[in-house]
Amino acid sequence: LAKAEPAPPKPLAKAEPAPPKPLAKAGAPVQITISGIAFAEVKQPLTVGDTGEWINKDVVAHTATAKNKDWRVVIPENSRATLVLKKPGTVDYYCEYHPNMTGRIVVRDKK
After folding, report:
1. pLDDT value at residue 21
2. Phi–psi pair at 36, nearest 5 degrees
3. CA angle 106, 110, 111 (to 5 degrees)
4. 92, 103 Cβ separation under 8 angstroms
5. Measuring CA to CA, which residue among 85, 21, 100, 22 is closest to residue 53?
6. Taking a C-beta distance cutoff of 8 angstroms, is the pair 95, 62 a contact?
7. What is the pLDDT of residues 43-78, one digit of tens each?
8. What is the 3 state secondary structure string of the chain?
9. How far is CA 11 from CA 3, 7, 14, in A?
């Protein structure tokens, strides 16, 4: 009796690189983490109408207050707070309780 020959291996499919992941899902809030008495850097620009969501992982309360006084968000300890961004521009902000805490967001106009 002759032994059956094993089937030749199937060629491997060529792997395609995964498409880049968006920084935030469309319509999802842009999350800004607060930890260690510091705001995380926001690397991507936001668009007018986007929601910023500050997530406070510290055991003390913070604010995110625009230096131009356009807006102020109070974020209790171990909590989160949101703000719909209504004006384009580069906005520097800080914590009123901890003035050395600073951040910056860039808000683009809708196209």
Report:
1. 44
2. 65, 35
3. 125
4. yes
5. 85
6. yes
7. 999 999 999 999 999 999 999 999 999 999 999 999
8. CCCCCCCCCCCCCCCCCCCCCCCCCCCCCEEEEECCCCECCCCCCEECCCEEEEEECCCCCEEEEECCCCCEEEECCCEEEEEECCCCEEEEEECCCCCCCEEEEEEECCC
9. 24, 12, 9
Quick: pLDDT tens for 20-29. 444 445 568 9
Encoded amino acid at 98, one letter: H
CA 99/CA 25 separation, integer angstroms: 31
d(CA 73, CA 67): 12
Determine the Cα angle at 31 with ends 60 and 92, to 5°: 75
Task: Name the residue among 57, 48, 54 with its Cα closest to residue 74.
Answer: 54
Predicted structure pTM score: 0.75
Residues 90-97, mean pLDDT to the nearest whole number: 98
